[in-house]
Amino acid sequence: MVLLPGCAVCSATKSTGILTEKRVSISEEWVHFKIQSSKANRSTSLASLRNKIRRHETSKAHKIAQELTEKGGQDLLGNLVSSMSETVFAETDAIFRTAYYLAKMNRPFNLIELQEKNGVNMGASLHSRYSSTKIVEHVAKEMQKKIVHSFVSSSSKLSVLIDEATSLSHKSAMIVNLKASVDGATPEFVFLELVELESQRAGDIEKALLDCLDTAGFSEEWLQKNWVSFVSDGASVMLGKNSGVATRLTARYPNLFTWHCMNHRLELAVSDAVDEVQAVNHFKVFMEKIHNLYSQSNKNSRELLEAAQEVGSQVLKIGRVLSTRWVASSFRSVKAVWRSFEAFNRHFENAAGDQTRNGKERQTYRGLARRMQSKEFLCDLGLMYDALSELANLSQQLQAHSITLLRADQLLKCTIRVLASFKDTPGEKSEEALTAQGLGHFGSVPLESNAKLTPINAKQFLQSLINNMEKRLSFEGEMLHDLSVLDTGNWPSTPGIRHGEAEVKRLCRRFNLCEEQAVNGMRDFLEHPDSEPESLKPLIRCMQAIPCSTAECERDFSLMNNVCTERRSTLLLSNVTNLMMVSINGPPVRLFEPRKYVTTWLKSHRSATQARRQCTPQMPVYKQIWKAL
């Protein structure tokens, strides 16, 4: 018995059901590859099979299957979209541009009616807020796809930053940010997704992160070669030595560099110094009293403004100090008290003599005024102003987009040297406080000593700050030492031609870069340190892609709270993600080109010119006063 395979074209077309829809019958033997001949004579059997093949080739079923196969390889939807008139594109462009603007500026989706009143041709469809939501979703998904494709296609070295928080809708969410370079340019931060967490255990966070990266388009093989660093805050679930997220990731990606956000480390260092120097707590408690006094009473705030006008000073907002907020916030509060010192004293004295207040209140304000007028408090205020000014400056520099680990190390060492100099030479505000102490008044405020107050020991506090900063923010580890060879400031006065060669090779092996190319680039760099050699740029861009802070995640959470307000707390996290993708990563409205997104939209959605379902608009109740307006 002789067997012959069936027709692959007919089989593939039959399996899709297309031939059935066209009511064309086809032999089951040809579909299921069961063609056979029962002739005993081989030559006769082959002649019979050739005859069957010829008849099938000329049959109507085979011709239809062949036509359908050829059409299946063509982009019919793309050709159909490209053949649409310019009017269809122009009106749909207007809809997309409007929806993009509303998402970019965080505005409600109800601007179509205004656009039509202004004479803009917005078509007949896609006017509802549901359509706007779908358009923004489409644009956000296309943007994410293009961003990920640009990273993957250029084999950029990738850093991942994550942070978790609770949204206004009481859902546990995780921000996923990336930092990478495109086509050899300077690495940039990119918002990837807002992920809802089922639980906050390390295993679930790891799974959610890896699922997010995989869904976005980063394959496991690509991540093994190009994922270089993971950055988070110092929560135990993130950086726990035994089963934290970072530990789990390094077990899966052995060359992954994990890093604790330096801004969070700085806060921990300041907190440790406050705990060690007990006198700082007295200052902190007094500042808390001032904050509570004016944040909880509109009357007190109004009277403080009046007192400030009397003394000709400006009142700044008073916040909490040395709390869970970042150190720059504490500095703003201390700065506000320093600048409005006379206004605060005037208000305390006025309130202490205000007979409309009860005796307990007047006594409270009298005690506050006595504390403000003490020489010890003014010296403490000057010391905290100088110290927090330097720490706030460091914190803000660490939050910069362009900051690198090497630059962060330089800034840290510089700040420590400045704080150490304050022990021998007081800072600007401490000098002013000491001068006022000798004169017996600060501006119009009389000063006197208060034996009950325990002043802060300036040298003890500054040394405690220095010790804890060196402990918390010190740069240790072989990789960080190797990266320092790229900093010309760490080179010897006359470096040899092979200086840093071993370090560069170790870095290349860790980050999957070409050793020979990087070594040649390092030698060129040693000869001409004023310019970056092209062959060394991959290593430099890799170093620049490693963030030293998760400040970008904090900015994104601030935006999330602006998007998902109390009046919009029912928004799904997927919709919040789409809005944030457009707002953070999208170009300005004037640079936004809707046509490329409209083209992909029209392949599966209606255009703005298509007729929409008729519905009766809800008219507002007519008011007679409108006639006069």
Keywords:
629 residues, alpha/beta, 4 domains, 5-stranded mixed beta sheet, two-stranded antiparallel ribbon, 7% strand
Task: Map the helices and strands.
Layout: E1 2-4, H1 8-15, H2 18-21, H3 28-31, E2 35-37, H4 42-57, H5 60-72, H6 76-82, H7 86-104, H8 112-117, H9 129-153, E3 158-166, E4 172-180, E5 188-196, H10 202-216, H11 220-226, E6 227-232, H12 236-239, H13 245-252, E7 257-260, H14 262-276, H15 279-295, H16 298-311, H17 327-339, H18 341-352, H19 359-372, H20 375-398, H21 405-424, H22 428-439, E8 441-442, E9 445-446, H23 458-473, H24 478-483, H25 501-511, H26 515-527, H27 537-544, H28 551-563, H29 573-585, H30 595-601
Parallel strand pairs: 3-6, 6-7
Antiparallel strand pairs: 1-2, 3-4, 4-5, 8-9
Helix pairs in contact: 1-5, 7-9, 7-30, 9-29, 14-23, 16-18, 17-20, 18-19, 20-21, 20-22, 21-23, 25-26, 28-29
